[in-house]
Design a protein that fits this description.
By secondary structure, this protein is of the alpha/beta class. The protein has a domain at 30-274: Aspartate Aminotransferase, domain 2 (3-Layer(aba) Sandwich). The strands form three sheets. Strands 1, 2, 3, 4, 5, 6, 7, 10, 11 and 16 form a ten-stranded mixed β-sheet that branches. Helix 4 (72-83) packs across helix 5. The protein has helices at residues 2-12, 30-40, 48-61, 72-83, 99-108, 126-136, 169-178, 230-240, 264-298, 323-335, 362-370, and strands spanning 65-69, 90-94, 111-115, 137-139, 145-147, 153-158, 182-186, 194-195, 198-199, 206-210, 223-227, 301-302, 309-310, 317-319, 341-342, 357-358, 371-373. Strand 8 and strand 9 form a beta hairpin. The chain is 39% helix and 16% strand. The two termini are 28 Å apart. The protein is built from eleven helices and 17 strands. The structure holds pyridoxal-5'-phosphate. Pyridoxal-5'-phosphate binds at residues 71-73, 97-98, 100-101, 160, 186, 188-189, 210, 212, 223.
Length: 380
């Protein structure tokens, strides 16, 4: 069976000697816009491409405000900060995520709580979230929920749209609203993904996108904070630009800010990539359908977009019976030059987060042992 799978993938990718997991594609105005940056000398934090990239993302996602940053991890740190999460708060997220989600919580001095995932969406399970809040927390007179064990306030929740598949974000937001917990969506992987025709990353108080080299579109490195809240957007822009008060020459800074802004040269790439996003999404969808039909024929589970959602199919994934089968396939496919990879170690399994609080992780543990990502680059 393993050979049938790698043969199919090799066929899709024209028998290249090495088939990578997700390569960027530059088929539009990338070189032209980069040359404009160089010719104009505007390669750094000031320049028209940054604003233009933000405008394009706003128009595409429907978010009212967008603030471009140097990468998604920093955008997440700042999102937590400007939304009001403080030192010693607790922030709920899922155990099945990339480490950046948990690290951003730690940068604030807050504590992550890792909960379980849905098996179909791979996102945070609303049922497990509800049960955790009901059993493990207590509402106090100030209106906030406090962890019964640690006594700490639970201020935020970060659901993740894993591999581009939308989480059950409506249910998650509803539960969080009922419990005075703000939602910051980790939409790092889900540009181009919609939950019931609304773009992922526009449901919570804020969200973040990533434009790392392996994402659906890339700026080299880059991220963006999205929000519909003007005060949050203004604060994020101010803090990401060293909290400098705008002035022609004076250096006045009214807070301890950060240098998190996206450079113009990266935004130039982003503008060009946005012009080919629709084409990329169409091609990724076609490829996902090819994979779905093939895996259904050979009896391997392929992760498809959840009901009522439109996924960007950023990174395709299949599920094996158990860890032994998964590992055998990883070894076989790598030997064949087909780059595959297991999903992330659960945050709860990383020594750095061994002391963090966890819920019951039954589904996440199964997913961690059996999921494999398969090549998903756009074929041009
Ligand atoms: C789920 C998730 N969260 C956060 C990030 C962080 O984004 P970045 O690599 O741009 O810092 C990534 C991507 O790399 C991610 O996949």
């Amino acid at each position: 069976m393993y050979k049938t799978i790698t043969d199919f993938i090799k066929n899709i990718y024209d028998h290249q000697s090495t088939i990578n997991l997700h390569e960027p594609r530059f088929i539009g105005n990338e070189k032209k816009y980069l040359a404009e940056c160089i010719d104009s000398t505007f390669v750094s934090y000031v320049g028209a491409f940054v604003t233009s990239f933000e405008e394009r993302i706003k128009a595409y996602t429907g978010a009212k405000y967008a603030v471009a940053m140097a990468n998604g991890t920093l955008a997440q740190h700042l999102a937590l900060r400007v939304c009001g999460v403080v030192h010693d708060d607790e922030v709920i997220t899922q155990a099945l995520t990339f480490v950046a989600t948990a690290n951003a919580i730690t940068y604030i001095g807050a504590h992550p709580i890792f909960l379980d995932s849905d098996t179909d969406t791979l996102g945070l399970s609303p049922e497990k979230l509800f049960t955790f809040l009901k059993n493990e927390t207590l509402k106090k007179a100030d209106g906030f929920n406090y962890n019964k064990k640690s006594g700490r306030r639970i201020s935020a929740c970060i659901p993740v749209h894993v591999f581009g598949h939308p989480a059950r974000i409506d249910d998650i937001v509803q539960i969080c609203n009922d419990n005075n917990i703000l939602v910051i969506e980790d939409a790092a992987e889900s540009l181009g993904s919609f939950y019931q025709s609304k773009h992922t990353g526009t449901f919570g108080l804020a969200s973040v996108l990533s434009f790392n080299g392996n994402k659906t579109i890339t700026t080299g490195g880059g991220g963006m904070l999205l929000t519909n809240n003007e005060a949050i957007a203004t604060s994020a822009k101010h803090l990401s630009t060293t909290a400098k008060i705008p002035h022609a020459w004076a250096f006045e800074h009214d807070e301890i800010g950060y240098n998190y802004r996206m450079p113009n040269i990266n935004a130039a790439l982003g503008c060009a990539q946005m012009e080919t996003l629709d084409l990329f999404l169409t091609k990724k969808r076609e490829q996902a359908h090819l994979y779905a039909a093939f895996f259904s024929k050979i009896g391997v589970e392929f992760i498809s977009e959840p009901l009522d959602c439109r996924s960007n199919y950023w990174l395709n994934a299949i599920k094996f019976k158990d860890r032994t089968e998964r590992d055998a396939f990883l070894t076989f496919s790598h030997n064949q030059g087909v780059m595959t990879r297991p999903t992330w170690r659960l945050m709860s399994q990383l020594p750095i987060y061994k002391d963090a609080e966890c819920g019951d992780l039954f589904q996440a543990e199964r997913l961690e042992a059996t999921l494999v990502n398969i090549p998903s680059s756009v074929r041009v």
